[in-house]
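Technical note accompanying the year-one report. For the benefit of new consortium partners, we illustrate the data format agreed upon in the data management plan: each record pairs a sequence with a structure-token string. No post-processing was applied to the example shown here.
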Amino acid sequence: MKVLLTGAGGQLGRAVQVVFGGHEVVALGHGALDITDLAAVRAAVAALRPALVLNAAAWTDVDGAESDPAGACRVNALGPRNLALACAGAGAVLLHISTDYVFDGRAGRPYHEYDATVPLNVYGAGKLAGEEAVRAHCPRHYIVRTAWLYGAEGRNFPNTLRGLAERPEVRVVDDQHGSPTYAPHLARALLELVETQAWGTWHLAGSGGTSWYGLTCELFRALGVQTPVVPVATAEFPRPAERPKYAVLESIQSPAIRLPPWEEGLAEFVREIDRNSE
């Protein structure tokens, strides 16, 4: 299977290139393909003739989206629309990555694929618009919502916490809950998903849920770090974009595709860091 991968330089894009190694993957970063340019997207899909387009490109600066909503929506909404149009015209399947931030976090329970979407911020609204564009323009599609994505390389929460481990203490928000997702685990689930031909919307994230505080405690335990972790409220760290308080994801789709528990993802993350430091 030939796969056109957008956003190839990101955490998920790098993991997909490894996991999809048995297939022909054409990996394009932003410099090689700007998904906000419809003509360029159509030309790339027509020239490469992929069976699957996997869109891992996204504007991920949640707070930055508040000050540049048009820029964020060009990437997160217009880009997926362009890919959907190109895929529909070429008969390709589109797999688009979305987010837990399409929910407001007020349900008080895990969100499944058929729950109502109510984004709280510009980033979430743009990602939801991207989902809607994919549904409208490309019949054969997968929309995959994931959450709290991280890998051994790049900027992400666990890597940021590793850099704070020498402080006398670390203060971390304990009233935001989600589903931490290790990028290689998600990439493996995506490979499993594309073999199902079960089109539609899916939730694929680390099984279970925790707070940023809980994630930090487990990370430091796995790393053998003794730095005290202090739980605090979101109000102590005001940000431009409002975050959902409880956006743990679960799936009720069939066939069932489940990622390992988030704790296993974190343990594998620590093992990968150890291997890379040898």
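Partners are asked to follow this layout when depositing records. The chain has nine helices and twelve strands.
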